[in-house]
Write a structure and sequence with these properties.
Largest sheet: none
Distance between the termini: 42 Å
Helix content: 55-70%
Structural class: mainly alpha
Number of helices: 4
Number of domains: 1
Number of strands: 0
Order of helices and strands: HHHH
Length: 88
């Protein structure tokens, strides 16, 4: 069985799309997360029950969105580093 160079495969996946495509995808991701805590959409999660990890659902949702934002920014930074687009 031949060995697959995982870092080479990931590097190809990161290098393939254009910068505009990456920007549009991450913009849509962050916009969806942002809208999920805005008033018209927030009413779907604005409830005390069910309790998740001992937190009310609304508090859990707010923390979850914060963690997802941090992971998204980390992924975007990693992709830009691999593509050589980080200046500094």
């Amino acid at each position: 069985m031949p060995r697959v160079n995982v870092s080479g495969v990931v590097a190809q996946l990161v290098q393939r799309p254009r910068r505009r495509t990456v920007t549009i995808l991450f913009s849509a991701y962050f916009l969806a997360l942002f809208l999920s805590v805005m008033p018209p959409f927030f009413s779907f999660v604005n409830r005390m029950e069910p309790s998740v990890f001992g937190l009310s659902f609304v508090l859990f949702w707010t923390l979850f969105v914060g963690v997802m934002m941090a992971l998204g920014l980390s992924a975007l930074y990693w992709i830009e580093c691999k593509r050589g687009e980080v200046v500094g």
